[in-house]
Amino acid sequence: MNTAPPPSRVSRRTLTIALAVVVALLAALLIGGEAYARHRVASCISAQFEQEMGSKIDVGFGVKPLLITYLDGKVGRVTVDSDDTKFGPAVGMVVHAKFDDLEVVDEGRGGGTIGSSSADVDWSNAGIKETLAGLVTGVTSSKSSGMLTLKVLGGLAELQVKPVVTNGVVQVETQSAALLGIGLPTDLVQGIVDVISKSLQSYPFDMKPTSISVTDDGIAVKLSGGRSELPASQGNTSVSC
């Protein structure tokens, strides 16, 4: 007695199995392709941002799969975090930045463009003191007064300064400088002010300060930028791409 299932049932079962295999293969290809694209694109873009930020960074990407970026060269958003960024002579700046609407060339190796950007920069009193090593022996700050107080000449004298944003540029204004009621040497004061100013005036990707405030822990700066260039990777970074 023939108990074989009807041909139509066998065909449906075979088709179901075949479709399941195809779906599994496609899923594996997509996962593998995304992993490959993420390695190549992410490593190249990270190298470019590290060049400009001057430190090791953590880079995050938006929700768009980097496999698509690998094909069309467009990245919706890149976030950059660093605990030790160096802008100008500054040491110990903490930065959280966002870069939107990127278009990259050659998976990121060949540079590209950034549509817009914004960043929050925090420069601690400890970082300011380290930056000014040899010139000051202590740094404190006051949110209420908006001023930094710098101990100079072994702590015998104080210099108080106030950073402000004027026409998109940070200026550091001297509020007081005295040693036992006698004014400090002009070249000493100017040297300290110049280092602080240069640390707060040099930013990558054409970003400009929109506001600056003194906190009880240091200085906080907000930056923003429009369309700018993303330079091509330098050196041997293409190996890791």
Per DSSP, the total helix count is: 4
Can you write the helix and strand succession as a string? HEHEEEEHEEEEEHEEE
- Net shape: elongated
Instruction: Round the Cα radius of gyration to an integer and report it.
Output: 27 Å
- Secondary-structure content class: alpha+beta
Which whole number gives the mean pLDDT?
A: 84
Strands, total number: 13
Query: Percent helix among the residues?
Result: 25-40%
Termini separation: 65 Å
- Low-pLDDT residue intervals, each spanning 5 or more residues: none
Largest sheet, in brief, is: 8 strands, antiparallel
Strand content: 35-45%
Task: List its traits.
4 helices, single chain, 8-stranded antiparallel β-sheet, 241 residues, 2 domains, alpha+beta
General description of the model:
- The structure is a single chain.
- The protein has helices spanning 7-53, 66-72, 125-131, 186-199; strands at residues 58-61, 74-85, 93-104, 112-114, 116-124, 138-142, 147-152, 157-166, 169-179, 182-183, 208-214, 218-225, 228-230.
- It has 241 residues and is α+β, with helices and mostly antiparallel strands.
- It folds into two domains: 9-114, no CATH class; 124-222, no CATH class.
- Strands 1, 2, 3, 4, 5, 11, 12 and 13 form an eight-stranded antiparallel beta sheet that branches.
- Helix 1 (7-53) packs across helix 2 (66-72).
- It starts with 6 loop residues before the first helix and ends in an 11-residue tail after the last strand.
- The mean pLDDT is 84.
